[in-house]
Design brief:
A hairpin with a 5-residue loop joins strand 6 and strand 7. The chain is α+β, with helices and mostly antiparallel strands and 588 residues long. The chain is 32% helix and 21% strand. The chain contains 16 helices and 20 strands. It has an 8-stranded mixed β-sheet, with helices on both faces. A 5-stranded mixed beta barrel has the order 3-4-5-7-6. Strands 9-11-10 form a 3-stranded antiparallel β-sheet, with no helix packed on it. Helix 12 runs parallel beside helix 13 and helix 14 packs antiparallel against helix 15.
């Protein structure tokens, strides 16, 4: 039985709060290191040995040893304030990106020369450190996805006598400020020749080696800050993600849509078929659901006369975590009065094709590696309009060589038996409850979704699968709905919206029956929404897209964790966290 709480004793060297046993372990380790150092100091120095920087010696230390030594060094600087390792401000005169654009063009600075009389102030993170004797140091300074070389020579220093001592403070990963002159090395590399280098924020940990980099997926997802420091490709993915969201926003704004915000918590989890998270409101003593979709609220706004509305935001579904699912994810939904599913299909093609052109500089094709970027298997995705359209029942009949019951009987018990037998015959697994909707969904996943490599639409859904969609105007038993797929996965979903309050109530009641049968994902009855429909919802087209999955396909990422800055991860159980709170997103 544990008798100590983690984090009850302060480490006098690092300032951390740790357990008593951990403090004892560290003190013993420090005693051993001190004895070794004394023994080494007592031995006669080897003559003619070239002076070696302490930074070079530290390369061979373990991560724990490095952290101990580095922490001790920074604590000493905090005491002496010579220099202050955590200054309040450094005035940056130009970004690294702008510096490279301004001084990088050929002819601006000749090789081996400096722009005398010009002084610039840069800031960024040191990645590589190279010494050429005691009086010349080279650093790679990274920032904004760009890098520039620092060529620090004793002769250029503001305090030449302190040159070695000042530069012994710097390590890989430190944030530094550089005041100096634009220059080029004799080999022609753009550099800055500093008169002064200032430590702005030291890195206490060993960075992964520049040669091997940071490859471990667990570490990359749990320590996204380290991933962004080390991997330029990670930075590129998240910049692309931001550009995709901004493109969607501009596209809809230009069509006269109004961006709105709707509640994250509500008393009924509606607007989609999914299992919700439950939270509790203390003051009201009321259990609430985190939203699984903003749909019902947005349609209430269309009832109120906001004819074109959209929302980009988080939704929460208490479901499994896998390569394409995260419990919280980003969705964009819009509702467009006086439009139907066919208008929305055209709009979807226009949006996504335009987005791909925007990201690629005019091309409509992208490569996607379904088994990872290093694999030989590659999909050539073609986004040019028009996209293929697969009729659900017609395509299943063609692929399975059977005739389905009439579409207006697909909700019956006889149809359920037919679908069960079909799944059994073709070894399609469907867990309980085996409702008609779930059985159909499994068949579609097995036989139609794999056809959709380049973007395509699946249309002709039975009403039993779509409780919020309007019935088909010419095909009884079906509804006006489409799903967009690419790489065999759904990325968007749209309806001609159901605006008949009488029919909507019947659909909600059917969902309630399915919930009572054990389907956790079925919706309950939302009386407020039905009341809104009773006030009149104009003929409306509605659309939703999973931003994360779209970003996956457009950045050639096979794992949704690659496109989420802080994906859901199981906490690592350690002595330090079993008794206390875990970190952000449950990560430690």
């Amino acid at each position: 039985m544990a008798t100590e709480n983690a984090g009850t004793h302060k480490d006098p060297v690092t300032g951390e709060m740790i357990s008593k046993s951990e403090l004892k372990r560290r003190e013993k380790a420090r005693e051993r290191e001190a004895k070794k150092a004394e023994k080494a100091a007592a031995q006669p120095q080897k003559a003619a040995a070239a002076p070696k920087s302490s930074a070079a010696d530290e390369e061979n230390l373990s991560p724990n040893q490095y952290y101990e030594i580095r922490s001790r060094h920074i604590q000493k600087l905090k005491e002496t304030m010579n220099p202050n390792p955590y200054p309040h401000k450094f005035e940056v005169s130009i970004s690294i990106t702008d510096y490279v654009q301004k001084y990088g063009p050929e002819g601006k600075i000749k090789s081996g020369e400096k722009l005398e009389g010009v002084v610039e102030c840069l800031a960024g993170r040191i990645h590589n450190v190279r010494a050429s004797g005691q009086n010349l140091r080279f650093y790679d300074l990274h920032g904004e996805g760009t890098k520039v070389q620092i060529m620090a020579a004793k002769q250029d220093a503001k305090e030449p006598d302190n040159f070695v001592a000042n530069h012994d403070h710097f390590r890989r990963g430190d944030i530094v400020g550089v005041i100096g002159t634009p220059a080029r090395t004799k080999k022609g590399e753009l550099s800055i020749a500093p008169s002064e280098m200032i430590l702005l924020a030291p890195n206490l940990h060993q960075l992964p080696s520049a040669h091997f980099g940071l490859k471990d997926q667990e570490t990359r997802y749990r320590k996204r800050y380290l991933d962004l420091i080390m991997n330029e490709d990670t930075r590129r993915i998240f910049i692309t993600r931001s550009r995709i969201i901004n493109y969607v926003r501009r596209f809809l704004d230009n069509l006269g849509f109004l961006e709105v915000e709707t509640p994250m918590t509500s008393m009924i989890a509606g607007g989609a078929t999914a299992k919700p998270f439950i939270t509790h409101h203390n003051d009201l003593d009321l259990d609430l659901y985190l939203r699984i979709a903003p749909e019902l609220y947005l349609k209430e706004l269309v009832v109120g006369g906001l004819d074109r509305v959209y929302e980009i935001g988080r939704v929460f579904r208490n479901e499994g975590i896998d390569l394409t699912h995260n419990p919280e994810f980003t969705i964009c939904e819009f509702y467009m009065a006086y439009a139907d599913m066919y208008d929305i299909m055209d709009l979807t093609e226009s949006l996504v094709e335009g987005m791909v052109k925007y990201l690629t500089g005019g091309k409509t094709t992208l490569e996607y590696h379904p088994e990872g970027k290093g694999s030989d298997k590659v999909y050539q995705l073609e986004f040019k309009r028009p996209w293929p359209r697969y009729d659900m029942i017609g395509t299943l009949e063609e692929k399975l060589g059977v005739k389905f019951p009439p579409s207006d009987t697909l909700h019956t018990q006889e149809a359920n038996q037919f679908l069960r037998e079909l799944c059994q015959k073709h070894n399609v697994d469907c867990s309980e409850p085996r409702t008609n909707a779930r059985l159909l969904d499994k068949l579609v996943g097995e036989f139609i979704e794999p056809l959709c490599i380049s973007p395509a639409f699946i249309v002709g859904h039975p009403q039993v699968m779509s409780p919020l969609a309007k019935y088909h105007r010419s095909r009884p038993g079906l509804c006006e709905r489409f799903e967009g797929f690419m790489c065999g996965k759904e990325f968007c979903n749209a309806y001609t919206e159901l605006n008949d309050p009488f029919e909507q109530r019947l659909r909600f009641e059917e969902q309630l029956r399915q919930k009572e049968q054990g389907d956790d994902e079925a919706q309950g009855i939302d009386e407020t929404f039905v009341d809104a429909l009773e006030h009149g919802l104009p003929p409306t087209g509605g659309w939703g897209i999973g931003i994360d999955r779209l970003v996956m396909f457009l950045t050639d990422s096979t794992n949704i964790k690659e496109v989420l800055l802080f994906p859901a991860m199981k906490p690592i159980e350690t002595a330090a966290n079993t008794t206390g709170a875990v970190g952000p997103s449950g990560q430690v």
